[in-house]
Design the sequence.
């Protein structure tokens, strides 16, 4: 059995060979950046949200990314149509509950997607993940006001309850399905100064899910790859504009060998 | 009483300490760039436009940015819902009437927002600001065909009439509430070669409004900060792609001390 | 009569003198990048999609760009309203049938736009163009699974049938109206690693159509300019993030003289 570090390298390698199509129904802020991230890493992005085409589109896809960052009722309807079709086809679904906890619409929409579809992975910051369980958890806008540590206990129980894999991202990321648990410490603080790095992590997880049947290892290795791209970008850039461009460059330049060697994934 | 230069430094300092949440209902073209600008300067962006969540979201916000760049009737409805709530809460509202004067829909939508909400600041180019008063003022697309000088007379009267602060941006920016008047000469011509620098100026003003109760000084210091970012970017970049990335870098790198020293704000 | 190389230089020169307004109804992924491309090259972008303003806006425009990359029924309706007005005014229309062949909605929407308006140019990859004729042509997502060679035969016949100019882009681009035929070999493989380079080519063609009455020469020279920007960017950048920024820089820096000298356009 291969180590998680070897798995990381293998996953990246397969993405570049197979170029999986990743279907995104995502927010307006990050569409361009996440599409570019998928291309830079070797996958193939498609953004499509019309209710009368999402079933067709998701049928070609290796994974479906649902991100509620700039949601409306109509977009949630499309997400659920696409999510039901993906569930039927066995296509992995990854949900990014952006701002869940900040408004009722976001919290209820995230819960509706979870109840109507088989979400394979849910990625959020600590506040967003906590809000999926605790009605009283409140988020300020889309930035977390809780630490990953605060969310760790809940994560394990919530993952089991929802029968999904949870990824809570922060300075150290936590990935768990309630049994297996990984902590990923790749990353750089400038990632917090670029909009949509969380959303991009979600999309990157989508690409890894398309080639790795184990959601926990797919998610952990994806987050290590994403964090390593941040580290590489920070070797050259010291401010967020050139850093965000440098991250796209790094996603393209990181080889499977580099990822295997430099990923920081620990199991508990 | 502190000078306007000291005020500029103080405002930037408070933004970085308090990280005010800025709620944007803005156009699709600039969402990513303006979110990144807010993060780079130290504020916290949120983009949310669903009619059934904007009241919740604006309640967390330090300022509300309304930008009609890619408007539809539905988005204007959301802007008015959010704007009424912000008015009720006393949260500053800044309106960017993109392309007002170019089409009836834009001119009428801008006027509707102004009549239904208490707009604290309106920022536009000369043609856009003139169109708010003069039915016959016509804009070609979203670029100004009038000079700031042409709009100066109107600006003072219009600011009084609308009981708001007006910012007319161009090579030299004018800020007035009909009584106080500032001219800001920071900036660089490459800013005209990047889409959404006007919209970004509007969002930057939003962040300054969140920390400065005086709309005139908030707006003048914000525009000086924005213009200085252009100057800093132009020290390294000579073409618009790297310039626009350099502006994000500069927004992150400009310190309160630099801003105090290098801002060019004159009163009349 | 001037050569096609001289025509390229002349077109770019007129764009920079006249700064034609290009009205885009396009997808969310590329709006920012294509607006920046138009500004960098010297044209003036406007994005407007509200059904009750597109007729007004297109009346100011030198060309109308219709791009179905993130379509819904409502947006297609707006495209047809704008397209009919442009047809009435004799304003050139360029259609980008993104993902046509991938879903019924896209194929049918592209065909509907073609049947309801006078499209001057249609630009797509080989699969997209083939799908406009062959009901059985299937595309995976938005990337081509056919070569330009496979589409060449169809292109000539289809261009005549639809009475339009077709541009099929790939490593070598083909432009034909069924009689004249050009092949453009400018470009760089990194363009395939950046989202929306195809959509940007479409918008660039829009700007050239605004200043050149011959759709075939306008399209061929636009594609040479676009490809040359890729080549120039690749002189400095080796990864897609900095490459995509470098392309914007190059669009600004390429002079008419450089374009005349370095464009690779061949006629058959």
Sequence:
């Amino acid at each position: 059995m291969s180590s998680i570090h070897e798995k990381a390298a293998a996953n990246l390698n397969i993405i570049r060979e197979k170029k999986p199509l990743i279907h995104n129904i995502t927010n307006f802020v990050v569409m361009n950046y996440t599409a570019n991230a998928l291309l830079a890493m070797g996958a193939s992005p498609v953004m499509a949200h019309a209710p009368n085409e999402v079933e067709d589109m998701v049928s070609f896809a290796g994974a479906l990314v649902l991100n509620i960052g700039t949601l409306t009722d109509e977009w949630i309807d499309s997400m659920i149509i696409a999510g039901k079709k993906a569930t039927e086809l066995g296509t992995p679904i990854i949900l990014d509950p952006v701002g869940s906890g900040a408004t009722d619409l976001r919290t209820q929409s995230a819960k509706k997607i979870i109840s109507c579809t088989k979400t394979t992975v849910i990625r959020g910051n600590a506040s967003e993940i906590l809000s999926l369980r605790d009605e009283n958890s409140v988020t300020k806008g889309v930035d977390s006001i809780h630490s990953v540590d605060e969310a760790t206990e809940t994560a394990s129980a919530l993952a089991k309850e929802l029968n999904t894999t949870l990824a809570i991202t922060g300075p150290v990321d936590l990935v768990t399905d309630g049994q297996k648990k990984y902590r990923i410490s790749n990353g750089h603080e400038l990632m917090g100064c670029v909009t949509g790095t969380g959303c991009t992590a979600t999309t990157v997880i989508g690409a890894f899910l398309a080639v790795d049947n184990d959601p926990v290892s797919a998610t952990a290795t994806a987050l290590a790859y994403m964090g390593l791209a941040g580290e590489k970008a920070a070797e050259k850039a010291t401010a967020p504009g050139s850093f965000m461009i440098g991250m796209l460059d790094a996603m393209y330049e990181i080889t499977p060998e580099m990822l295997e060697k430099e990923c920081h994934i620990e199991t508990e």
User: Anything to note?
Assistant: Residues 4-267 of chain C form a domain with the UDP-N-acetylmuramoyl-L-alanine:D-glutamate ligase fold (CATH 3.40.1190.20).
